[in-house]
Design brief:
Length: 142
């Protein structure tokens, strides 16, 4: 299931997208002065693989990916989130949380691809359980 909400403001546009039990792949482009929040949720049984690619195309583009997943019994679930930065003053956050119970396997991958011009990265921090956070901020010299 996919839900998309859009809010327009004078200087930027805010999008909210929710994907439940995502499979296959999804490709999203975030333009200049746009902000996107993607919420991923998968609490149902069954094995699945999902790849999300987000391209921040314009200046001042922003994206936050928040994911929650649970794997049970013999489930094998894999999420790959890739964020590509192609402009100045961009912000990206990838937050993936999950639990694997019984003999289940869970793989959560977050990648930020940033050009070699002005860059700030806050290194990953781990919470209790299986949680990984990356914050990416592109520089202004791109």
């Amino acid at each position: 299931m996919e839900i998309l909400l859009t809010f327009y403001f004078s200087h930027f546009t805010f999008f909210f997208m929710k994907l439940t039990n995502p499979t296959n792949s999804k490709h999203i482009i975030v333009g200049a002065n746009e902000e996107l929040v993607v919420r991923l949720e998968d609490f149902d049984t069954g094995s699945r693989e999902f790849t999300l690619e987000v391209i921040l195309k314009g200046n001042n583009a922003s994206c936050e990916v928040q994911g929650r997943v649970q794997a049970m019994k013999q489930d094998v679930k894999t999420w790959n989130v890739v964020m590509k930065f192609e402009g100045a003053n961009q912000t990206g956050i990838i937050e993936l949380h999950g639990t694997a119970e019984d003999d289940a396997q869970l793989e959560l991958n977050g990648t930020g691809i940033i050009p070699c011009c002005g860059l700030q990265i806050r290194l990953p921090r781990f919470d209790s359980g299986l949680s990984l956070h990356y914050d990416f901020v592109s520089g202004s010299n791109c």
